[in-house]
Amino acid sequence: xxxxxxxxxxxxxxxxxxxxxxxxxxxxxxxxxxxxxxxxxxxxxxxxxxxxxxxxxxxxxxxxxxxxxxxxxxxxxxxxxxxxxxxxxxxxxxxxxxxxxxxxxxxxxxxxxxxxxxxxxxxxxxxxxxxxxxxxxxxxxxxxxxxxxxxxxxxxxxxxxxxxxxxxxxxxxxxxxxxxxxxxxxxxxxxxxxxxxxxxxxxxxxxxxxxxxxxxxxxxxxxxxxxxxxxxxxxxxxxxxxxxxxxxxxxxxxxxxxxxxxxxxxxxxxxxxxxxxxxxxxxxx
Length: 285
What we know:
By secondary structure, the protein is of the alpha+beta class. The chain has 2 domains: 6-128, CATH 2.40.50.320; 137-282, Glutaredoxin, CATH 3.40.30. Helix content is 25%, strand content 30%. The protein has 7 helices and 13 strands. It has helices at 6-9, 11-24, 126-134, 182-198, 215-224, 237-241, 270-282, and strands spanning 35-39, 52-65, 71-76, 86-92, 106-114, 117-125, 153-156, 161-163, 171-177, 203-209, 231-233, 250-254, 260-265. The strands form 2 sheets. A 7-stranded mixed beta sheet has the order 8-7-11-10-9-12-13. It has a 5-stranded mixed barrel with strand order 2-3-4-6-5. The longest helix is centred in the middle third of the chain and has 17 residues, at 182-198. Residues 1-51 and 135-144 have low confidence and may be disordered.
């Protein structure tokens, strides 16, 4: 997890974001993101030095779009080399971009920074972006698969360790979440219900908490919500391997053979998971 605050890294951009947020009048209700630094060809101004153009991209959930189509409020994941995860407004490079998104959409977005001016230059639905970059759509059928799950071993809240190898032969639901994430709080009770209903059929839910403060903040939160399945503390490497830090929550369904069968970006409901869990557990039941 990135521990450098955006205020420290880019104080002028942080101030810019606050001013934009006030101007919009909006309120808020996840492969490694690339950050390329290319010098612009020639000078776009009368300045002797050419302007630097920076490009960044990340996943986000759309919270709102202004009626004029000039700005969109995005709840975005960590934008590597630029800013930490937060909810903030972004200026859109063109008003046509506003027509591509609606509140609640999960998207991959690209931004351009020139002379301290930040613009969103493109939106792509998150599932379409996954299809383009991984070669398999996140919404594809369970039998298609998204590749083998990366092995992991992390420390649980009780001090024990849990690895993917320990869960061999089970259907694993691997959920990346954080205490500051509203949708995570909503889906955890759903996961508790599903864990109870499918435990006898070989399903094991596992939560990976992304909070930088670690156990001190995660443990009381887990007690409050009575999380009924193992809660692991992320070491930064596991969430990165699974892209679980892009949009929180992100959930993976891993079959008995260790193949990823589904990836859900955003909160998942009880009703959404029933069909796929039935399918994956029917194989040997």
